[in-house]
Amino acid sequence: MQQSITQTNALACTAFHDGRAGNARQALALAHALTLHATELVLQPRAPWRWLAPRVLPGAQHGLGPAFHARSQVAPQLAIGCGRQAALATRLLRTRGAQAVQILNPRIDPAHWDIVITPQHDRLVGSNVVHTLGSLHPVDDDWLLRAISVFPNLAMLPTPHSVLLVGGPTRAAALDDAGFSALLQQLSARARAEGGSFSAIASRRTPAAWRAAMGAVDVRVPGLRWRDTGDGANPYAGLLANADRLICTPDSVNMLSEAAATHAPLFVWQLKRVQGRNRCFIDSLLNTGRVRALDEAMTEFAATPLRETARIAATIRQRLQINP
Which label site among 7, 122, 128, 228 has the fewest CB atoms less than 10 Å from its CB? Predict the structure, then answer.
């Protein structure tokens, strides 16, 4: 372990990522949980370093783009990375004196970093490996309160407000078009029967057929059916903050993790169709009682928010001796 970080001045912390939304969100969430003064650097990797990261080849300091090369001349106190390209960046910066925290399995010996953070379903082991239940993200009470203020119209919708978070079929989640149409019918019928609202929001993974089905939901049912930016600004944060219950497709650990960080009961659709690491993660949530499989009853239950980012930040402060 390198020398501890003291924070007599603002902690110099930089989050590194490759520009992919999931990697950026995790790196930035953790960085901002550790300090209000975190900065961000988007890497611009080129061959062959892009292909072989985080393995170190000659010239690696120049292989992640000019911005990284300039930043590496004076390493930050704390370098946080997410994804393989960022794993190379944080590994290189550690040799220049930075404390290096890597999010997600780097696929090589974790001893190249001070701390490696991975979901427990990855089953990576090591004295410096810290496991999470799901992914890191910025969702906490402050984040939810800000979202309520940004989307005030959502608070005006009739309650209870059911919100469907929509991903899409993957190799690990064999979801079908007919089942999705039936889900929309089930949830819109429930909203009508309760006198409440039903909203649904698509993601980048949502297929065109599903977006079309969302647009075909009865317009007399109050709520938003957001398919893309043609429907206006993305209301994702506001929907999470205003949901009385959440229903989520089972294909995305990130989406499920963020939904589980709210105060709303969370139901998972078509659980039997998911396998692999996603299924292991969902089973863990089921075992803790934080989620339930979606059924016709959708019986309400007490929901304790899952806030892994704050827990991991506290662990890092302790292990790296970062003063609050």
Answer: 228
